[in-house]
Amino acid sequence: MKKITVFFIIGLFSVNMHGRALPDYPPKWKNEIQYIYDSIFPSIPSNELPPCEFKRRQWIPLQTRASIDVYNEEDLARAIANNQSITINLKSDIFLSGNSTSSRNNTGSIQALLNIDKRKNIIINGEGHKIFEFGKPFQKTRLQRNKYLVPYTKEVKGDEAFTTNSGKILQLARSKTYRARGWNTTLSSQGIYGLVLPKELLHIRITKNDQVFISFRVSFVRQTYRVHSCSNGTIYFTIDKKDSYTNSKYMRDLSPQTDFYLTNFEESNDGVIIKDGYLSYPSQYGTISQCESNYIFHIKGDSKVEINGLTIIGGTEYGIMNSASLRIHHSKMMNPIFGGIYNTGLLFADHNRFEEIKTSATRTEHYPYLIKNHDPYMEVVDNVFTNIGHYSGNTHAVWSDATAYIAHNEFINTNYSAIRIGKLNCKEKEYLPNNLVEYNYFHHTDEWMNERKQLGLQDSGDIYIIPNNGRATIRYNTIINCGGLGKNNAIYGDDGAYNMDIYCNIILDTENYYDIDCRDGSKKGETRWSIPKDCRLSTNNFIAYNVCNGYLRMQENENDGVRKTGCSYVNNFVIGRGNANRNKIENLVNLKKTKERNKAIIQVGNPSVIFSHLHKRTF
C-alpha cells in the first residue's frame, strides 16, 4: 500500500518540528499545548503505546481522454451525459433546475439534478465557481409596502429551502429561543399540550390558520409540532401519541421549563416570514425559488469522479450522493437546509471548507446485508468544518459506521458531535469498522456554546464512539471549550464501546461533564445492542497518556462476573488550569481497585511536572 502524502492548508496551520499541524490555539493555552506536543508526547516510550495497524487506502489519480470548457447548465449536463472520460473546466457559475438529465423517483420528485453513472471517469475543475439549485419561480406575486406577498398553500414543514436569483439561500423564518415557564397538561388526555409562555410573548396570538411550528426539547430529544392556538399566555399543539418522550411524566420531570422556538412566526434577518398563508420577503430579493432535488450530484455505478475548486450549494437531503468513487478537494460546501456528502462508496475529502450545514457534513453508511461485497471507506483530511448542525439535534460533521481515516481537520462550532464513528448494531465481526482519528483540533465559540445549551443537547461528545469497533484509535487530538446543557463530553465511548485506543489527546475547558467518558453498557445487559458473539461491551480499551484539566470516567465490563476485561487505564494527567471546584468535587475513575484508580490518573500542577513524572517513572 503506497503512502499518501498529506498536505496542509497554507496560512491556516503552522507546522512544528514533529510535522504536527498546529492551529493558532487560544492564547491562554498556546504555550502549554506547544510544550506538550514538543516535549511530553515525544518522551513517552513507544513500547508503552499500542501499535496502530490502520492502513489508509489510496485515491488513484484519474486520467481522462478529453477536456472541455463549460459556460452554462446545458453544456455541463451534456458533457456529463455524453462522455465516458472527460475533464470539465467550469468558466462560470452554474444555476441548476429540473432539467432533462434529472432523475425522478416514483412520486415524481427530483432525486438528483446531475447523474453520473455506469463506468465514467470525470474531473470537474470548478476554478472558483459555484453550482447551486435554482427552481421555478413562484407566480402571482404582488408588491405591498416594499415586500412581495406570495400565496403559500402547501403544508409548511419548516425545512424548506429558498434561493434568490443571485443564488443566495434563504431559510424560512425562525424566532429566537425562549424558555417556557412550565407545562399545561390539562388537555393531555386528548393529546393536546401547552407551554406557558414567558412574559415577552404574552401578547402573541396564533390561530389554526397560521402555519406556525414549535420546536422544543424533552430531555435530550427535540420535537417539532404545528401550533393550533395561542391565547392567554399559553401556546397549544397536538403531539404524536406514539412518541414515548412526549408524555406528562417526561415533560414535567425531565424538562419542567423547556426551551423552545417558533418557525414561520417571527421575521428573520433576511426578512422572510410566513403568516396567514402568505410567504413574505423584501422585494430586493427579486424572484424566489424552492429547491426541488434531493441531491445536486448523484455518483453511482463504477464511476470515478474528482471535484476540484468548486462551491456546491443546495439539495434538500445532501449536496452529493456518492455510491461509487469520489475525491473532492479544495472546494466548499454550504447547505443550511440539509447535509453535505452522503457516501456508501469510496470518499476522499481533503482541503475543503464545510460551512453552515444543517445536518451532517460528511456521512458514510454501510449496509452489509443489502449490498454484497461492498466495502465503503471515507478519508477526511485537512478540512475545516464551521457551524455544522445549526438548530438541529443529533448531527455530526463527520459520521461513519464504516472504516474511516479522519485527520488534521479543524472543527469550529459543531452541534451534537464533530466526529461519530463505530456501528450501533452489528452481528458479524467482519463488518466491524476500523477507524483512526488523529491530529484534529476542536473548539467552539462562547455564542455557540450558549446555543447548544438552549437546544438542550445532551448525551454527546465532540468525538463520539458507538459500541461496535474492530478497532478505534483516537490519538493526538486537541479539544478546547466543549460543553452544552448537560451530559456533553469531549471524548465519549458510549454504551459500552469496546476495542478503543485513546491516548495522547489534549482536552481543556470541558464545561460541564467528562473530558473522557467510557461508560459501561453491560450494566444494562449486552442484549441491548447487537454485537458479535465473541465480543463484550466495555472491554479491550486502552486509555492512557491523555492530558486534561477536567475529569474522567472509565468503566469496565461488570456484567456476568467478567473480571479479565483486557482494559488498561493508566497515566492520564490532570493539570491544574481548569475548573478547580469541579476537580475537587469529582475526579473519578470507576474501576474496581483503589490501586488501579491511582494508576489511571496523575494529578500535576502544570505540564512541566508531567515531563518529570515520565522521566522519574514514579507511577
Can you lay out the helices and strands and say which pair or pack?
Blueprint: E1 14-15, E2 21-22, H1 27-43, E3 66-70, H2 73-82, E4 85-90, E5 94-96, E6 103-104, E7 110-116, E8 121-125, E9 130-133, E10 142-144, E11 147-151, E12 161-164, E13 169-171, E14 178-179, E15 182-184, E16 192-196, E17 213-218, E18 221-231, E19 234-238, H3 248-254, E20 259-263, E21 273-275, E22 278-282, E23 288-290, E24 295-299, E25 304-308, E26 311-313, E27 318-322, E28 325-329, E29 332-334, E30 339-343, E31 346-350, E32 353-357, E33 362-364, E34 377-381, E35 384-388, E36 396-400, E37 403-407, E38 410-414, E39 417-421, E40 434-438, E41 441-443, H4 446-455, E42 460-465, E43 471-475, E44 478-480, E45 488-493, E46 500-503, E47 506-508, E48 516-518, E49 542-544, E50 547-548, E51 552-554, E52 568-570, E53 572-574, H5 580-585, H6 594-600, E54 601-603, H7 607-616
Parallel strand pairs: 3-4, 4-8, 5-9, 7-24, 8-25, 9-26, 24-27, 25-28, 26-29, 27-30, 28-31, 29-32, 30-33, 31-34, 32-35, 33-36, 34-37, 35-38, 36-39, 37-40, 38-41, 39-42, 40-43, 41-44, 42-45, 43-46, 44-47, 45-48, 46-49, 47-50, 48-51, 49-52, 50-53, 53-54
Antiparallel strand pairs: 1-2, 6-7, 10-11, 11-22, 12-13, 12-23, 14-20, 15-16, 16-19, 17-18, 17-20, 18-19, 21-22
Helix pairs in contact: 1-7
